[in-house]
Amino acid sequence: MLTIASEIEVLARFGRALADPIRCRILLALRETPAHPADLADLLGISRTRLSNHLACLRDCGLVVAVPLGRRTRYELADPRLGHALTALSTAVIAVADDADRACAQVAGEDSCR
């Protein structure tokens, strides 16, 4: 059964999805058009196994849905408004200090903010 997530939960799920550059690339690709996993893997230059793990995360976050088409499955954004949100986020002007990348990486324990 589908439930409607609270605003905070939606933002947290969006944040989790956007925390990984590969998931960002998947979402941006799906913003343009729905796609089959094999096509996405080729487009992004990653293995199908790795792509499958990221698609599972995006499904768990509620941002993408799998649409069965015969023997194949196509992935698309769960809501067309997510494409508009991705565009707005990717074109937003953010204010960061010169050393923000280094500080962010230290807090996260990795290069997740780059």
UniProtKB/TrEMBL annotation:
PROSITE patterns reported for this sequence? HTH_ARSR_2
Q: Name one Pfam family in it.
A: HTH_5
Molecular function, one GO term: cadmium ion sensor activity
Q: Which domain of life is it from?
A: Bacteria
Q: Which UniProt keywords apply?
A: DNA-binding
Cross-referenced InterPro entries, in alphabetical order? ArsR-like_HTH (IPR011991), HTH_ArsR_DNA-bd_dom (IPR001845), HTH_Metal-responsive_Reg (IPR052543), WH-like_DNA-bd_sf (IPR036388), WH_DNA-bd_sf (IPR036390)
Q: Which GO terms describe its biological process?
A: response to cadmium ion; response to lead ion
Which residues does the UniProt record annotate as the domain HTH arsR-type? 4-100
List the PANTHER family: HTH-TYPE TRANSCRIPTIONAL REGULATOR CMTR (PTHR39168:SF2), TRANSCRIPTIONAL REGULATOR-RELATED (PTHR39168)
* Protein's UniProt name: DNA-binding transcriptional ArsR family regulator
**Organism source for this protein?**
Nonomuraea muscovyensis
Q: According to the entry, what is the taxonomic lineage of the organism? A: Bacteria, Bacillati, Actinomycetota, Actinomycetes, Streptosporangiales
